[in-house]
């Protein structure tokens, strides 16, 4: 693999790790902002932190055998924009500048974007463990979308 492609993969996975960490932080704030759903927020926060750890495993796999990976249809720039948007909204929540309904709607839209990232094949590989991790991330993100939709409708 070319060094440039390896760097691209590293930047991409690092950016996704940042997205997952930022989502975990957001859901942690939601525990206090919308306490009637604290169980849901705790679950989502834990899962997002676990997603970051899973992506770290993928990062290590890429570092160990970069020739087995190619970048998918995703940009680290898009991930960085999501990180900034989530952080901005988290700050607005802390300052109570948004309603709980708006905070839930916002994060549901973000989860839709994150799902699209995983559906668009973040990385391409034949490494079974990595593909299993990516499928798990996609399935759990789809569940997050469902939970948030239920909160919006409930």
Poorly predicted runs: none
CATH architecture assignment name = Up-down Bundle
Percentage of residues assigned to helices: over 70%
Largest sheet: 2 strands, antiparallel
Q: How many beta strands in the DSSP annotation?
A: 2
**Total of domains:** 1
Figure out the total of helices: 5
Report the span from N to C terminus: 49 Å
Radius of gyration: 16 Å
Summarize the structure.
The protein has 154 residues and is mainly α. The chain has helices spanning 3-33, 38-64, 76-94, 100-119, 128-153; strands spanning 69-71, 123-125.
Walk me through this protein's architecture.
The protein is mainly α and 154 residues long. The longest helix has 31 residues, at 3-33. The chain has one domain: Ferritin (Up-down Bundle), CATH 1.20.1260. It contains five helices and two strands; from the N terminus they run H-H-E-H-H-E-H. The relative contact order is 0.17. It has a two-stranded antiparallel sheet. Helix 1 (3-33) packs antiparallel against helix 2 (38-64), helix 1 (3-33) runs parallel beside helix 3 (76-94) and helix 4 runs antiparallel to helix 5.
Layout of SSEs?
Elements: H1 3-33, H2 38-64, E1 69-71, H3 76-94, H4 100-119, E2 123-125, H5 128-153
Antiparallel strand pairs: 1-2
Helix pairs in contact: 1-2, 1-3, 1-4, 2-5, 3-4, 4-5
Keywords:
154 residues, mainly alpha, Ferritin, two-stranded antiparallel sheet, 2 strands, 4% strand
């Amino acid at each position: 693999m070319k060094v440039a492609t390896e760097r691209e993969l590293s930047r991409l996975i690092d950016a996704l790790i940042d997205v997952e960490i930022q989502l975990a932080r957001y859901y942690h704030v939601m525990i206090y902002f919308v306490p009637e759903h604290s169980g849901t927020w705790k679950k989502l926060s834990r899962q997002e932190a676990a997603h970051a750890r899973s992506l770290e495993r993928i990062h290590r796999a890429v570092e160990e055998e970069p020739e087995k990976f190619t970048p998918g249809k995703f940009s680290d720039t898009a991930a960085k924009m999501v990180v900034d948007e989530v952080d901005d909204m988290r700050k607005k929540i802390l300052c109570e500048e948004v309603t709980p309904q708006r905070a839930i709607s916002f994060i549901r839209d973000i989860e839709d974007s994150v799902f699209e990232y995983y559906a668009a094949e973040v990385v391409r590989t034949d490494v079974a463990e990595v593909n299993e991790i990516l499928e798990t991330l996609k399935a759990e993100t789809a569940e997050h979308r469902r939970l948030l939709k239920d909160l919006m409708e409930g």
